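Give me structure tokens for this 266-residue protein.
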Amino acid sequence: MKKFTVVIIAVVLQMLIRVIVVQAQSGELPRFKNEYLRDEDRVAAFVTSFIKKDFQASTLLNPSNVTLFAKGYRPKIGLPQDPETNNQKYSDLQKYFIKKIYLDLNSIQPFNQLSFQIFIDQVGRWSDQTLTCAGEISDKYGLSVAGPFIFETELAKIPDGFEKEEFKQCWLNDFVLGTELRIFAWIYEQLFNTPYVMPEKRRISYGTQPDIFRDTVLLVTPLTSGKAALTGIHIFVIQREMLRCLSFFLPLGAPWDKLRFKHSEI
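Here you go.
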């Protein structure tokens, strides 16, 4: 059964890769050069263009995120440099995000291939935290994760109180970090002429099988054999991790950050 499940996963991934290659044409994305690192205006122009041209990045500006930001919600995880320190306040999510990208790039000292790779790895770990937070609450209250996602309708399923506030904060935080991870991977490829490789994929290169593949087989096999069902958060993590592990065979490696359950928000 395990071998059969692995074959199914491989076939599905091949289909996903074909679709993703069509959607993620790296030639359409903006270029980034070393001299942009210390130039805030050039960073702003680059990020603005990237969000406009890359579908996954554009979901940062989904109505739910814009609304939450306007109501005062802010990321709490993954803020080595807070864009709103020194009484600097933002009312626009995109401007806040651009400032975060600029500050994070300039916090990496010295800036070289290894130090940038280490920083991107850390952004990925922060992103894992926010994904788990939102996913666990979503699973607990049975949020509908298939098809068009109406944020307010699904949010109403969570009782008022700490968990609802935590979900909203993690939701926005996850989008910010997921988009930052995606942009940094593209900048890395632009500056060093080689794709950024997630830690999971680097372990494969060194001949070590990452635990996620073993975990995926163990989780999917009960579902296919009818013995148990996967929870929503398990599905999110499996989808996200399988794509993260294999995505860097693609021009941009997209969408390796996550298969978000709100990707078709309306």
